[in-house]
Amino acid sequence: MKFGGTSVENGEKIRHVAELLKQYHMDGNELVAVTSALGGVTDGLLTTANEVSKNGKVSQVKEFITDLSKKHYDAINVAIDDEKIRSECVDSIDTRVDELEKALIGICYLGELTNRSIDYISSYGERLAAPIVSGSIRSLGIPSQSFTGGEAGIVTDSNYGDARLLEDSYTLVKSKLGPLLKENIPVVTGFIAHNKQGIITTLGRGGSDFSASIIGASVDADEIWLWKEVHGIMTTDPKIVPESRPIPQISYIEAMELSYFGAKVLHPRTIEPAIKHKIPVRVKNTFEPEFPGTLIVAEQKQIEDVVKAVTLINKVALINISGAGMVGTIGTAARVFSALANAGVNITMISQGSSEANLSLVVNEDQLEAAVAAVRSEFTTNVVGDVAYDRDVCVVAVVGAGMDGIPGVAGKVFYSLGNAGINIIMISQGSSQHNISFVVSSDEALDAVKTLHCEFELDKQ
Ligand code: ASP
Ligand code: MG
Prior knowledge:
The protein contains 13 helices and 17 strands. 41% of the residues lie in helices and 20% in strands. It is globular, with a radius of gyration of 24 Å. The protein has an 8-stranded mixed beta sheet. It is of the alpha/beta class. The chain folds into 2 domains: 2-221, Carbamate kinase; 309-455, VC0802-like, CATH 3.30.2130. The chain binds aspartic acid (ASP) and magnesium ion (MG). Residues 4-5, 36-37, 42, 125, 190-191, 205-208 line the site of aspartic acid.
């Protein structure tokens, strides 16, 4: 069971989490708890590190550390009743906060912040949270022990900031946590791991879900539960469509499509280990544990729900590369893509019509300038006539494995958008047929999502 930052935001919430864990433990389940940092802490650590590396203000570090300690002391006082456990917990928090303060002051003086130091600093969110969650469980009379990801056996390469898991981790985690499970609820820090040398690495922002999935696969769990502050994976963003509702069951493939498409319910890599080991993943609401949530399973229920969800991706930009010289010129696409790859640009969508006279791409908005410059400098001859771009666009994706082989879905999508007077700028459907993605101008994007949500009756059970 993994608990997100909002689920462990403060002492009351941590106590609630400990009570939930106790209840499932008493019901005869073997559990591992994975915790995120207390809500907002990771952001605070990153911002502070970043700012003090530029301004060198030791006073800012001191202030931050005071607030951070207070936040965690407050949590301890509410989450842990037992005096002895409480003072042990305070000791371990003090030790860690001390180390953190030294590291931040070091950054002030050095004035530099490497990826390795960023991982080290940001690991403190989870490393401060885990002893409190574990202490809270113990204070309810259940044995518990806290581990960092690395201590629990999660080992990665040294790609700081977005480290890749090493395969040995699975057996290592099993050997470290497996023997404890009968009596104990181990609490493991999400998000962080270490490399072979024992240096702290992280699995990318929001990586705690991934940690949970790695651990679940390692101990051969019956299910992996991700406790969040929402009812599950939603048919769309409730801020756009208030009638959106949680999806009761969804396949691994659909969930992956959704996470790639900006529905930030799951870290995209989260379910890889679950898929490999065929372990169902459940997304549940910490604050309404009775609600079933969303179950993510291997098999795809076709027909019933042709379209499961509609998602919107903001902060993207469209690039249109055109020119009569492109027609039949072999290697044009290869040159475009290598130029972009060399410039470190990630491409979200691609479309080329069969006339070959233009190639459209979608990239993240913050990479637009680099992308345009790269393509322009690659084509100085007249193969490419023009490289135009548009920032004011959004991508909308319609996702559902049930679309595979069902005629008329694309027709319905574009017909309903046409009726709503929404102009489609670019279209792309992968041959997996699990999603149809298209680009619209930003001011029509919300309408597009609403129209499709209604058209496919996603608001109805
Ligand atoms: N605390 C980390 C973050 O905010 C990891 C997580 O919450 O999953 O990105
Ligand atoms: Mg988080």
